[in-house]
Amino acid sequence: MNQQDLIAQLREDNGTKIVMLVADGLGGLPIEPGGPTELEEARTPNLDRLAKEGTVGLSIPVAPGIAPGSGPGHLGLFGFDPIEHQIGRGVLEALGIGVEVGPKDVAIRGNFCTIDAEGRVTDRRAGRIPSEVGERLVAKLAEGVKIDGVETLVAPVREYRLVVRFRGEGLGDRVADTDPLQTGLHPLAPKATDPGSEKTARVAAEFLRQAKEILKDEQPANFLMMRGFAKFPAISTMEEVYGLRSAAIAVYPMYRGLARLVGMTVVEPGKTIADQFAVAREQWGKYDFFFIHYKYTDSTGEDGNFAKKVEVIEALDAELPKLMELKPDVLIVTGDHSTPSRMKSHSFHPVPLLIWAPATVRPDEVTSFGERPCIRGGLGQILAKHIMPLAMAHAGRLQKFGA
Amino acid sequence: MNQQDLIAQLREDNGTKIVMLVADGLGGLPIEPGGPTELEEARTPNLDRLAKEGTVGLSIPVAPGIAPGSGPGHLGLFGFDPIEHQIGRGVLEALGIGVEVGPKDVAIRGNFCTIDAEGRVTDRRAGRIPSEVGERLVAKLAEGVKIDGVETLVAPVREYRLVVRFRGEGLGDRVADTDPLQTGLHPLAPKATDPGSEKTARVAAEFLRQAKEILKDEQPANFLMMRGFAKFPAISTMEEVYGLRSAAIAVYPMYRGLARLVGMTVVEPGKTIADQFAVAREQWGKYDFFFIHYKYTDSTGEDGNFAKKVEVIEALDAELPKLMELKPDVLIVTGDHSTPSRMKSHSFHPVPLLIWAPATVRPDEVTSFGERPCIRGGLGQILAKHIMPLAMAHAGRLQKFGA
C-alpha cells in the first residue's frame, strides 16, 4: 500500500488548521568557508522562537543527491513521490497561467523566435519581445489557426513565451521538442517517439505550418518553437488523500498551477507576503490547509545575491507574527529545495524544516532555525513526502493504524 | 528481495543470546513546555549506563506520522513490515483474550445488542451490560450453538464484547460486518465479498439464527452483531526468518498472542517484571531470543498519569541488573510506539531505542536514555523493522552479503 492510500484510510476531520509556508529555495551554503549560510546569517527572531518551541530537521526533496525543479519539489511537499509522479513541462506552464488541462489534452510550452529567409533560427527568444507584443501575436494565432478534429488553445505566458493546448481524442505526449537549441539551425519537425503520439505530432506540424504563415510579416517574432509536450498526470487531490479543503496563496503562476494539479483552490494572493498572510486571515474559516508560497528566497539565490537572500529571509520573518495570530494548529516552514546563492541554482542539499504544533510536538534541543542547527533537530533528515503525514499526525487528523 | 528473505539467507547460528525488552508505549512528551518527558524525568541509572556503554536512537514504528496499535507496533519490532502484514481485528481481539487462532480459523469480534420486536437495533451495545452478564450470555451461546462441520468457540472480552471463532475447512474471511452502524435499522446479514468466503458467511448466518433463538428472552442483550472477520495472517516465524528459538515472556494476552503469531513459545511469565526476569533466567539455556514485554509504561500513559509513568519506568530500571546478570550478547530496549501521558493515547512519535552489545557496539556520545539524547544517538532514526537485523548483526548471527 502506498503512502497516499494509507493516509486516505486513516484520515479523519477534526477541524484543525495546517499551514505550510514554503520559502522557495530556502536552503543555502556559506558564501565563504566556515561562514554562515543565508538563513544562519539572517536575523530571524520569529523563526528562531518557532524552532525553539517546535522541532526541526532537514527535508530531502526527492532523494539524496537530487536537485529538483519546482514541480517535483512541490509534489514532494504535498506528500507525493516525485519520482513516481512526474509532471510534464507543458502542463506546468499551462497550469501556471490558469489554462486548464484535462485528460484529453496535450499542453506544450511555446516560444516565439526569429527565423531568417532560409528558415534558420537567428534568435531563440525573438529578442525577448515585451509581453504586450507576445499577447498580440498569441491573439493572432488564436484567431487564425484552425485544425480539423482538434480544439486548439493558445495563451500568452510572458514576453516571448506562450502555451499551446490541443484537445482531442488519441493525443499522446511523446513528441520531441522542436527547438534546435542553437541558432543557425532549422527548427526540428515535431516527431513522435511512440505510436500513440503520431497524431499529436501531425497536429503540431500543421499548427506550426499555419503559424509560420500567420506570423510571416512580424518582426522579430516571425515563428515559434514547441517543447515540453505533456498530458495531465494521474494524481490524487489533497481532498482525496488528506480530506483537507486546501487553499493556495501563491503569487507566481507556476506554484498556483502546481497547487491546482493536486486540487487546491487558488485564492487571489495580493502582492507581498503581508498581503498573502492577510488573505489567509480572510479565508481562514473556509479551508483546512493553506499552502503559502514565498518566491524571493529562490530568486535571490538564483541571482547569486547572498546579501539580498538574507534580506528577504528577514523580511519573511518580520511578517510571521501576522500568520501566528491566526493560531494554526500546525505550521510547517520549509522550502521545496535549496538554492544556495553561491551556486546560483537549485541544489540537492537538504532543506531546513520546522514543524510547530503546540499540542503534539516533542521539542528537541535546537533553539534557532538554520542549516547547522537543523542537523541536530528532532525530525532528523526525512524525505519531503513524509512531511504531510507528520503534519496530519500533529494536527490529530490520523487515526491509529491497526489495533 | 524483502528483508526477511535476505536475513533468512544470511543467518547463521553461533549460540549467542538476544533479549528484546519492550516497554510498551515507552516514548512520551513533556507534560509542560520545555520540561522533561516521562523517560527523561525518571531516575534510570541502569538504562543510562546501558545507553552510555551501548548506542541509542529512535524507532519509527510503522512510517512517519503513523500511530500504531499493538499489532503493527510489535510486528515492526519482530522485523516484519507492518503495512505489508496486517492482522485483522478479529484475530487481534482473540489474541488479546488468549484465544488461540490457527490456519483453519476465522476470528470475529462480536458485540451484544438490543433489538426490538421487529428485529431493529435499538441499542448497538446492549446498554453496556456488565462483564458478568456478558460472561453468562457467552456461556449460554457456547452451550447452545451447534453448527455441522464447523467447530465454534465463543469467549467473553469485556461488558458487551465477545469473540467468536469458527474452525473448519474452506473458511475465508472476506465477510462484511453485520453492524448497521445506527439504531432503527435491522442488523445486516453476513455477506461474503469473495467466493472463498461464502461458507463463512453461511456459518455466520446460522450462528446468528441460533443465537437469536437462544437470547430471545434476555434483556437488554437479546442479540449480537459481528465485525472484523479475520483469518490468521500468512507470516513467517522467528525461527524461519532468524533461526532463533524464541521465547515470549509477556503478562498480557495480546502480547502473548502476537508472539505466538510469529511462532514464539509463550512461557509462563509470573506477574511482575522481576518474575519475568526470573523466568528468563530459568529458560536461558532453552532459547536464543527472549521477548520480554512490560505493559505499564503504556497503561500509565493511556491514563494520562505522568508521575505514575515515571514511577513504572523507574521500577523497570531498578530490576534491570537481574536481567544483565544473565549476560545477554545483545540487549534491545525500546517500545512498540509512544504513549505520551499528555495525549492519553498511542502516538506517532518515534520511540527511544537502545542497543547494548559489548562485543560489537560502536558507542556514541550519549550517556543517558531519553527522547532528546536519543536524537543524537548513533542509531539515528530508523524504522522499527530494521531493529531485528541490527540485533542479529550485533549478535554475530549474519554472514557477509556477497563476496
TrEMBL record, chains A, B:
UniProt name for this protein: 2,3-bisphosphoglycerate-independent phosphoglycerate mutase
Catalysed conversion reaction: (2R)-2-phosphoglycerate = (2R)-3-phosphoglycerate
Domain Metalloenzyme: from-to ranges: 17-392
Function: Catalyzes the interconversion of 2-phosphoglycerate and 3-phosphoglycerate.
Pathway: Carbohydrate degradation
UniProt xrefs under SUPFAM superfamilies: Alkaline phosphatase-like
Family named by the database record: Belongs to the BPG-independent phosphoglycerate mutase family. A-PGAM subfamily.
Superkingdom per UniProt: Bacteria
Gene3D superfamilies with a match to the protein in the record: Alkaline Phosphatase, subunit A, Metalloenzyme domain
Pfam families for the chain: Metalloenzyme, PhosphMutase
Keywords recorded for this protein, A-Z: Glycolysis
Record field: transmembrane: none
Keyword Phosphoprotein: no
GO biological process, one term: glycolytic process
MF terms in GO: metal ion binding; phosphoglycerate mutase activity
Taxonomic source organism: Tautonia sociabilis
